[in-house]
Write a structure and sequence with these properties.
heterodimer, A: 316 residues, mainly alpha, Helix Hairpins, 7 helices, rod-shaped, B: 123 residues, alpha/beta, Rossmann fold, 5 helices
């Protein structure tokens, strides 16, 4: 086997030193970039987790009972609103009742006006009969001659009074009829209004029930969506945490690269020494030298082992 | 009052991940990037309930760090969990001899770490 010339050995030493230095520098750069990138990614994930916590934790509040408390609060608010609206409707109903009571007092007036008309008619009949009586009395007074003259004057006065009574009776009848017509008209208008008011109050009650139902449904929907958002945030938080845990690979890669850098340095030094002395390193010693500093199973298997996964804890 | 745990590891990303898992479980977490810094943190801390340490670190490795912790007048009773990529029995023996109570090989999963912490942590 030809021995290397001294200048050739020196050149090889120089090339080897240059290559070893270059490889180490690149490995160092790769290590540093990976560390920095991983740190940036982890810091970002940490921020995301903090944001997710701000969404999830206030909702959890005092614990798992929070959503039940939300439902209770919503129910109480709705019940309060419904109570106030129903109170308003009750006030309207009270007003209608007062109006009905007033109408029930007014309604008998139309009956009373009929009685009044009858009484006025009775007065007119009395006047007619009195008129007839006074006529008869005048006839009888004429028959009596001079002795009945005074009685004839009385009969004439009675006749005049009976005529006036008849006129008064007629006026009363007219007034009573007019009064009765107006009362009947007023009562029928009030009845029509009452019917409309009652229908309006019933429609309002239905609207109140409907509105309360719609508000309840909307709040239920909002709560359900908020709950869904919380659940999704929880899932995302779990996934982000899992991703962060997966970043432990960086620690292993760093250690593997560090060993490669050390190995390049020691191996290159050993080879330079060999070139200087013209003595190749012993195979077993060389193998041990370039494998020194292994920490992981992947390194010990020369890269054939699967990437490590979590293993059991050893307690001492 | 929250229990205090010291993490000693030269990888900032690993410290972040461990810190996150422990903080979520309600522990107060202190960090150091190697054995020397770990001892300095212990000097200015009145009590740590547990220590989690890497093995391969610059300046002072984990085995030496644990050995010194076990000689520390105030912190010698603090239980130590080694969290490392080293999985060889010879290394584990060194850890046990130095005074560690448990050995977890990276990568860890958070429930596994929290289980070991809850079993060993001082009241």
């Amino acid at each position: 086997m030809p021995v290397l010339a001294a200048d050739m050995a020196a050149q090889l030493q120089a090339r080897l030193a240059e290559a070893a230095e270059l490889w180490s520098a690149h490995l160092g750069t790769a290590q540093q970039q990976m560390q920095e990138a991983t740190a940036t990614l982890l810091a970002g994930f940490r921020e995301i987790l903090a944001e997710l916590d701000r969404i999830i934790l206030p909702a959890q509040g005092a614990g798992a009972q929070a959503s039940a408390a939300d439902v209770d609060r919503r129910t109480a608010t709705l019940a309060h609103a419904e109570q106030r609206l129903r109170g308003l409707m009750a006030a309207f109903a009270g007003f209608l009742e007062t109006r009905d009571q007033m109408l029930s007092t007014v309604r008998p007036l139309s009956v009373a006006s009929a009685s009044l008309a009858q009484m006025a008619e009775d007065v007119r009949n009395l006047a007619r009969q009195t008129n007839l009586l006074s006529l008869n009395a005048a006839i009888e007074a004429a028959r009596a001659g001079a002795s009945g003259r005074g009685f004839a004057v009385v009969a004439s006065e009675v006749r005049r009074l009976s005529n006036e009574s008849g006129e008064t009776g007629k006026r009363i009848t007219d007034q009573v009829e007019q009064f009765a017509t107006q009362v009947t008209l007023a009562v029928s208008q009030a009845d029509a209004n009452a019917q409309r008011d009652t229908q309006a109050v019933q429609a309002s009650e239905q609207t109140v029930t409907q509105v309360i139902g719609e508000v309840d449904a909307t709040l239920c929907g909002l709560n359900a969506r908020a709950e869904e958002l919380r659940a999704r945030s929880e899932t995302i938080r779990g996934q982000v945490e899992a991703l962060m845990v997966a970043f432990q690979f960086q620690d292993r890669v760093t250690q593997i690269l560090a060993q490669v850098r050390d190995s390049i340095a020691t191996g290159s030094a050993r080879l330079q020494d060999a070139l200087a002395t013209g003595q190749a390193p012993d195979a077993a010693a060389w193998s041990q030298l370039i494998r020194a500093g292994y920490t992981t199973a992947e390194q010990r298997s020369d890269g054939s082992a699967a990437p490590a996964s979590a293993s059991d804890t050893t307690f001492f | 009052m929250a229990k205090t745990i010291l993490i000693v590891d030269d990888s900032s990303s690993l410290r972040t991940v461990v810190n996150l898992s422990l903080a979520r479980a309600g522990y107060e977490v202190l960090e150091a990037s190697d054995g020397v810094e770990g001892l300095a943190v212990l000097e200015r801390t009145s009590k740590v309930n547990l220590i989690i340490s890497d093995v391969n670190m610059p300046n002072m490795n984990g085995i030496e760090f644990v050995t010194k912790v076990k000689q520390h007048p105030r912190h010698k009773f603090a239980p130590v969990i080694m969290l490392t990529t080293e999985d060889q029995a010879a290394k584990k023996d060194l850890g046990r001899a130095a005074g560690a109570k448990a050995w977890i090989v990276k990568p860890f999963n958070p429930p596994q770490l929290l289980d070991a912490v809850s079993k060993l942590i001082l009241p």
